[in-house]
Specification:
246 residues; alpha+beta; 5-stranded antiparallel β-sheet; 8 helices; 9 strands; 14% strand; globular
């Protein structure tokens, strides 16, 4: 399963830390600065540090109210329910993460997320895209067993909220299985999946005549990035933030 393994330390948009690093920093400084959620800016609780039987993680407070729906990283969010059951492969994930942070792949990711946000000028500033990547990194999307680079690119779309242009009504994407298969191998968990758009206000499915589901396939991904609008010049802040030249 995936866990919320990173949070901002002290200030939103600041240093990303693990629960162990968070508690160590507070001990050194002799004060308890907050751990802040990358997705919703709420203060978090560190859990499982130094416990041999529990994977350390950050958790939202129980009284987060509507952020259960709005925050793409909340453990109770409907968009995370499928991935929380997926097995992890840390070794493959570490290699995939390095591959993702190459310039050409970061640029493709930005192209895809920008297009899904509407594809219009200013619809996805570089700073907002950086937050999407940090949200993805905080939940370790690279580590799902058998996941490929194209799959990581599409999973990024789960880490954001969207709005209809005319009404301004918000929606998000969650995974949905189109066919039931009880004996599906772990390394084929993504077969027959779609990203289903749902209204943010009540989690109800958006009718496909208003917003179509997204096929979780390499074919769909390659179609979206076959014609690139952005060049490296358009992603200078992204490259600088993640220090991809180092």
């Amino acid at each position: 399963m995936s866990v919320l393994s990173k949070a901002y330390y002290k200030n939103y948009g600041g240093e990303l830390v693990t629960p162990s690093q968070y508690e160590a920093k507070n001990r050194i400084q002799g004060t308890k600065h907050p751990a802040i959620c990358v997705g919703c800016e709420e203060h978090l609780i560190s859990h499982g540090v130094k416990s041999p039987n529990v994977t350390e993680r950050f958790r939202h407070h129980k009284n987060t109210g509507n952020n259960v729906i709005k925050c793409p990283l909340h453990s109770s969010s409907k968009r995370n329910s499928f991935l929380n059951k997926t097995k992890l492969d840390p070794s493959n994930g570490n290699m995939l993460r390095k591959e993702f942070f190459k310039k050409e792949n970061l640029l493709r990711a930005y192209e895809l997320c920008h297009k899904m946000k509407g594809g219009t000028p200013g619809c996805l500033p570089q700073k907002e895209f950086i937050k999407i990547i940090e949200a993805a990194d905080a939940t370790g999307i690279w580590y799902y067993k058998g996941i490929k680079l194209w799959g990581v690119m599409i999973i990024l779309l789960l880490k954001s909220n969207y709005s209809f242009k005319k009404s301004g009504q918000q929606y998000y994407y969650k995974f949905k299985r189109t066919k039931i298969c009880k004996n599906r191998p772990d390394n084929e968990w993504w077969n027959d999946l779609i990203l289903q758009p749902c209204f943010l206000s009540d989690n109800k499915v958006v009718d496909k005549k208003y917003k179509s589901p997204i096929d979780f396939t390499e074919y769909w991904y390659q179609n979206q990035v076959s014609k690139m609008k952005f060049t490296e010049v358009n992603a200078d802040k992204i490259f600088s933030h993640f220090k991809v030249d180092e």
